[in-house]
Amino acid sequence: MKNTLTSYILSSFMAGLLFIASVSAQEDTSDSTENRHMDFEPTLGKKDYDDRGKVVTYPRFFGGLTFTRIDWGFSRLIDNGSFTLSPENQPLDYGRASNFGFDVAQVGLRFTDMFKVYVSTGFEWNYLRLKNDVILDTDAVPLTFVESTTDYRRNVFTSTYLRVPLTFEFRSRKNRHGDRAKIAVGAMTGILLKGTQRLRSEEFGRQKFRDNYNLASFQYGAFARVGYGSMGVFAKYYLNDMFENSPNQQSLNNFTFGLTLGF
Length: 263
Hints:
The protein is mostly beta strands. It is built from one helix and twelve strands; from the N terminus they run αββββββββββββ. It is about 10% helix and about 55% strand.
């Protein structure tokens, strides 16, 4: 199963590279100004391009507040290399799982018109819509599930992290419309802010509980983005265990993929 997952990821990256190659073949060799076209990237601070028609010289430092790299997609739990959960993790079986995040600040260095490196920070949420009527014990270590007699219409478990990715971004030359093909790879880290379980039932109505739920206090992994203009797709693989101090959840990781706006 691990080989299958690796093959799937490599195939996705190769498809992205072929996409960039095909787009680049249609692009012209326009100058290094960005006044003809601006991507979706609201930014306060020094940019890595000049939007007033001036020629940009490199290397060029940039940084400031921003609202970009807005990710929305799907999540899959990987249990010891398999998408099928082990018996110990069946309480975490889910109907839908999603990932949402965005960056709010960045600083970096553009070396050339086609390559830059930057560190950014933002927020990220992972949502699991649980199938089972279980409540995660807020006081137990390791992670403990409590079977409930209540029939929950909604049972959503959420983790919230402050994310800090390091990105290496490559882009092609602009085409005649001012758009570029882009690919970015890098490493990401994150600090746990909170865990939340939201419940809804006929008996108790809406309920919300907050705790760290033995979630990893520090997460890390790798990611890749492939895009054109301001739109793209992303994939992230978290190398750390999703939970800590919980032997039954050892080697339970998270894999996410989806769409990016402001890439």
